[in-house]
Design goal:
- It contains 16 helices and no strands.
- It is an all-alpha fold.
- Helix 6 runs antiparallel to helix 8, helix 7 packs antiparallel against helix 8 and helix 11 crosses helix 15.
- About 3% of the residues have low confidence.
- Keywords: Membrane, Transmembrane, Transmembrane helix.
- This is Nucleoside recognition protein.
- It comes from Palaeococcus pacificus DY20341.
Length: 316
């Protein structure tokens, strides 16, 4: 029992040490962009999606911000929600619509790895991932159109254009104050969620889930090479890219089969990602809303990927 507590504490500390600075920076960037009014210049990027979804026009600010920093975009939405500017329904739709900018945002970390392992073929795979994010965002935009009948107007956001004329020190002070006010309750929830997740990791819960998925994967109508690539993604995406590249070079797997196996691997890897996603979503949105948003996002993305794999098998 003591060893379980020690191990889980070490895991939790390791995760918080890496994630908390990024979260605080994300919240601060969101508050600074709002207070300074800078993000208003980029809001047209998100306006088509926001208009389609019946969200308030100001949610385009969060959508545009997510292209720069996903945490900052989500923190901006939480800011709107806690101040009563948007309701829970708008919070859900707007947060789920950030799938596309969140995927594009990872270009600087994904493209170099994909090029190093898969070469120019990696660019094609990245394009498919971006397409999946775009489809996911569009799905939730249409969901918003059906669920949100009368969009709210966040009149108070207009004041941030005027704030751009204020001295930077004053804007910085306001951003820091709001960052502190909004981050404290988020961090309290995140620490608790992280430790519970760490306990599950130390107890072997996620390893058990992984073994169940591996047993299930053995019954899929795929070649052994495809299964091996898909399963390796549960350990590491880089491992999956490297293994796939070697199999492709050796002529043991086709390009279509490789894409299919990598996409399937990204679905199976959801089990592995839970240990990171749970503290992130629960910390930001709370236990109930965070869990719901996380599961809806994962389920929708997985369904889109599986449909795409099915289409590839029929059409290509």
């Amino acid at each position: 029992m003591l060893s379980l507590i020690i191990t889980s504490t070490e895991i939790a500390f390791s995760f918080l040490k890496r994630s908390v600075p990024g979260l605080l920076i994300g919240i601060f960037i969101a508050e600074l962009l709002i207070e300074k009014g800078i993000i208003n210049k980029f809001s047209p990027i998100g306006k088509p999606f926001v208009k389609l979804s019946n969200l308030p026009e100001e949610c385009a600010l969060a959508f545009a911000t997510a292209f720069l920093n996903t945490r900052a975009g989500n923190a901006m939405l939480i800011d709107f929600y806690k101040e009563g500017k948007i309701g829970k329904k708008e919070l859900y739709i707007a947060s789920l619509m950030n799938a596309f900018p969140a995927m594009v945002r990872h270009w600087n970390s994904l493209i170099p790895v994909l090029l190093a392992t898969l070469g120019t073929f990696g660019l094609l795979y990245f394009g498919i991932l971006v397409l999946i994010g775009f489809i996911q965002t569009t799905v939730f935009a249409f969901a918003g159109k059906l669920l949100i009948k009368s969009p709210k107007q966040i009149k108070n956001v207009q004041k941030h254009t005027k704030n751009s004329q204020e001295p930077f020190k004053k804007v910085l002070r306001k951003a820091l104050t709001k960052t502190k006010r909004h981050s404290i309750p988020i961090l309290k929830t995140m620490v608790l969620a992280t430790y519970i997740t760490a306990l599950l990791i130390a107890a072997g819960f996620f390893e058990y889930l992984t073994s169940l998925v591996k047993d299930f994967a053995a019954f899929l109508p795929l070649s052994p090479e495809e299964i091996s690539v898909a399963l390796s993604a549960m350990a590491s995406s880089i491992a999956a890219y490297t293994l796939g590249a070697n199999l492709l070079k050796a002529g043991l797997i086709s390009e279509k089969a490789l894409i299919r196996s990598l996409l399937l691997g990204s679905v199976l890897a959801n089990i592995t990602f839970l240990r990171v996603l749970i503290p992130y979503y629960v910390g930001l949105y709370g236990a109930k809303d965070g869990t719901k948003i996380m599961l809806i996002s994962m389920a929708t993305r997985s369904a889109i990927i599986l449909c795409l794999i099915l289409v590839m098998g029929v059409v290509l």
